[in-house]
Write a structure and sequence with these properties.
With about 220 residues, the chain is α+β, with helices and mostly antiparallel strands. It contains 4 helices and 12 strands. A hairpin with a 2-residue loop joins β11 and β12.
Length: about 220
């Protein structure tokens, strides 16, 4: 069973993204993240409408998903991301966190995210220390996503599931938590211009819901 350890009387350390090592990050995350899963039918703290408040982009067909935000306890910290295969029916070729649909037999969104990480990239659960949740993120394609944050101990061996994952790579956590790297881009979608966050990293173009969730993590940790 995947559980989140609760720490009593924990206050958030006053740090910036440049100060973080694994120990300080864990204290910060446990202090500022949600220890319990957010309500799916509650208020969504962020979503694809953040930059498109009047666009009416949401689908009425709502599906619940969970993603794992795996922070690797390297020095410096890094984040595991995947590139989805080009033949998938949705979000083909995009950069994404490991994750997927929350099944009825998943004990929690964190359990679903850990399961999906095992299935997609063979990340063994014994390397994962769950830290907490972000509030849900709603996408224009009808997903309500519960972002589940975890610290990952080095020493794992990742293998992509070729049916879903074309590549696995890591991005420095400090790069993603630097607001100067949070760009705003736009594309035409369903006949309307849609704005979204983007975080280009070398040849990788991190955008859409993944970039939006990274932005939400930044705000939760460093703008709270």
């Amino acid at each position: 069973m995947v559980t989140i350890r609760k720490m009593s009387s924990l206050s958030a350390p006053n740090v910036t993204s440049t100060d973080l090592n694994a120990e300080v990050f864990e204290k910060l995350a446990r202090a500022r993240l949600l220890a319990e899963p957010p309500l799916i039918n509650g208020t969504h703290a962020s979503g694809d409408d953040d930059l498109n408040p009047d666009a009416g982009i949401f689908s009425s067909d709502v599906r619940h998903a969970a993603v794992l935000i795996p922070i690797v306890a390297h020095a410096p910290l890094s984040v595991i991301l995947t590139e989805r295969t080009g033949h998938l029916s949705s979000h083909a070729g995009q950069i994404a966190f490991p994750g997927g649909k929350v099944e009825t037999d998943d004990a929690s969104p964190m359990a679903a995210a850990v399961r999906e990480a095992r299935e997609e990239i063979a990340l063994d659960g014994s390397f994962i220390e769950p830290l907490g949740y972000l509030p849900t993120y709603r996408t224009g394609t009808g997903f309500i996503i519960t972002p589940s944050v975890a610290l990952v101990r080095p020493g794992f061996h990742l293998v992509p599931d070729p049916a879903e994952v074309a590549d696995i790579f890591e991005v420095p956590f400090q790069f993603l938590m630097n607001e100067a790297n949070h760009k705003i881009d736009s594309r035409t979608w369903r006949g309307n211009e849609r704005r979204f966050y983007a975080m280009p990293y070398g040849e990788r173009y991190i955008w859409g819901a993944t970039a939006g969730i990274i932005r939400a993590l930044y705000r939760r940790l460093f703008s709270a």
